[in-house]
Design goal:
single chain; DUF58 domain-containing protein; alpha/beta; 3-stranded antiparallel β-sheet; 2 domains; 12 helices; 39% helix; Rossmann fold; elongated; DUF58
């Protein structure tokens, strides 16, 4: 079996890696346990209470997008005065700027910033490729921990927050606000995730389209995923969402997805089991590492191209890495 043949089998890396390595929690009892137990959730909350003293405020969408000469679509009938423009037929008389009219002799209408309440939505990928991990924890477990970090931030800031779980089906929570929002969201995201039984998974693209319809202007959407189905159509939706909400991506990966461990006698076998197990050579290791490097660099370039802020976090990383990144960037 040539290095080229091995290379071709890397197109769905998590698929064959699950065959190559035992999962972190392989037994039937364990996979039917919650991703995080009540004890885990409470311990994580205690850690976050020390790590996250306050939440980073969300910049107003009107402030971030109303730059330059182009008119803003965020001007509405809110309470905060923004500017005045010449009166147009149909404008409400109560909105006339009488002082400006007295000075200029022309009728002007007051415009106000559209009223919006900041809210956060956590979109957590729990599909099959996320149910994989070789060291310390599964990708799906790390994704829930990352979601907990943001849920805690929202809670201490008193912000409305909800979650979407992308799994066999798509499920979402109501909007939570107050002291119990962190725990409620974590319980929702920690339901057991045994091996998937559905033939067709929901697509990230389709759920982002729903988010585009549902989310309010100026809200924040945080996507936590390995982005294995990130295609051009999905990127286009992300670009459109960027014009409406604050979009953040957290890329979760396992160390083996970037570099195979140097284990003597490591073998690769096709998922069907029909192909004879192939002992990996030095050239195979190099081919894989080259491919993996290109794969993740392409992901970075795609997200950057549509202006999405993102951070990478491995299954072994402490959430302190995420917190430091957020603090350095100045916004979550």
């Amino acid at each position: 079996m040539s290095s080229t043949s091995v290379f071709l089998q890397l197109n769905r890396l998590s698929d064959w890696l699950r065959k190559l390595f035992k999962p972190v929690q392989p037994d039937t009892v364990a996979v039917r346990q919650p991703i995080l137990s009540q004890k885990d959730i409470h311990q994580l909350g205690e850690m976050l209470s020390q790590m996250v003293p306050k939440a980073t405020p969300n910049p107003k969408a009107s402030e971030s997008l109303k730059q330059g000469e182009q008119g803003s679509r965020f001007l509405g009938s809110g309470m905060e005065y923004e500017e005045s423009r010449l009166y147009q037929p149909g404008d409400e008389v109560r909105r006339i700027n009488w002082r400006l009219m007295a000075r200029t002799g022309q009728a002007y209408t007051k415009l106000f910033q559209e009223e919006r309440q900041e809210s956060w939505t956590l979109l957590v990928d729990q599909r099959q490729s996320m149910r994989f991990g070789t060291q310390q924890r599964l990708k799906v477990t790390q994704a829930v921990r990352v979601a907990g970090y943001y849920a805690w931030q929202a809670q201490i800031a008193g912000l409305p927050v909800d979650a979407i779980r992308l799994s066999e089906t798509v499920k979402s929570t109501p909007i939570f606000e107050g002291r119990s929002s962190y725990e409620q969201l974590m319980e929702f995201l920690s339901v057991p995730q045994p091996p998937m039984t559905v033939a067709k998974e929901p697509r990230l693209h389709d759920e982002l389209l729903e988010c585009q319809k549902r989310l309010q202007v100026g809200s924040r959407l945080i996507i936590i995923s390995d982005f294995q189905d990130l295609d051009d159509a999905t990127l286009n939706v992300m670009a459109a969402l960027q014009q409406k909400v604050m979009l953040k991506a957290v890329l979760v990966y396992d160390a083996v997805e970037k570099q195979l461990p140097a284990i003597s006698g490591l073998k690769l076998q096709s998922l069907s089991g029909r192909t004879q197990a192939h002992s990996l050579t030095h050239q195979d290791y190099v081919a894989y590492e080259t491919w993996a490097s290109q794969y993740f660099e392409t992901l970075r370039q795609k997200l950057s191209r549509v202006g999405v802020t993102f951070i990478e976090i491995s299954t072994q990383d402490d959430l302190l890495k995420l917190h430091r990144h957020v603090g350095f960037a100045g916004a979550a």
